Amino acid sequence: MSSPELVIQVLRAELRAAGITYKALAARIGMSESSVKRMFGQKDMALSRLAQICKAAGVPLEDVLRRAADARPQADTLTPTQEKSLMANPRLLLVAICCLGNWTLDQIIETYRLSEPECIGLMVELDRLGLIELKPLNRYSMRVSTTFRWLPDGPVQQYFREHVVEDYFSGRFDGAGETLLCLPARLSLGSSRELLLKIQQLAAELARLHQADRRLSPDERDGVTLLLGFQSWESSAFTALRRA
Prior knowledge:
By secondary structure, this protein is mostly helical. It has twelve helices and two strands; from the N terminus they run αααααααααββααα. A two-stranded antiparallel ribbon has the order 1-2. The relative contact order is 0.08. Residues 11-64 form the HTH cro/C1-type domain. This is Helix-turn-helix transcriptional regulator. It comes from Massilia violaceinigra.
């Protein structure tokens, strides 16, 4: 289904949820009911008409467009080639991570030593790589899903393992809303799989909260990182003490 079709589908659902019939909508926008039905039967709609209908129905246009964007099939990962392209330019990786956090262009250039033309150029490259879809006025939407993850043992994850993990764990984890847990246990394979499912559910919940908080102003949000690892493991120092 194309993006315009998804927008119309979402708009139709919003009208239905608000209890607004085609007849009622027609009266509000000065059209005949048959014309409204025909308009919704088409696969596209002018932005001006879409804005008019949203205003008449009391539905925020931004919400309709965001829901349509979220409804599009999106990839959960990039390809190895795409990740290698990110790793070839540290600034491109930085902007990619900012986009995954839904930063605006202004927020990026206010925070990091990037000029506006340079940042726009990097966003154009991210569009070419398929991570984002660049829109007018330097806005963008994500082309990856809310459950996006880096490839296991891929180029980006290897970089994180070599350069980021030590830096991450050097923090104190004693700030508001922070914690650090290292919990050893002995589990059966079935229990391990059950816990893995719960970890995946936690990741989905983080994605949900991340999307919900996009409605808040930038000064009401802070960048956070959830780093989870779960594997059969023993410290090498402890392994050295095992009996032969």
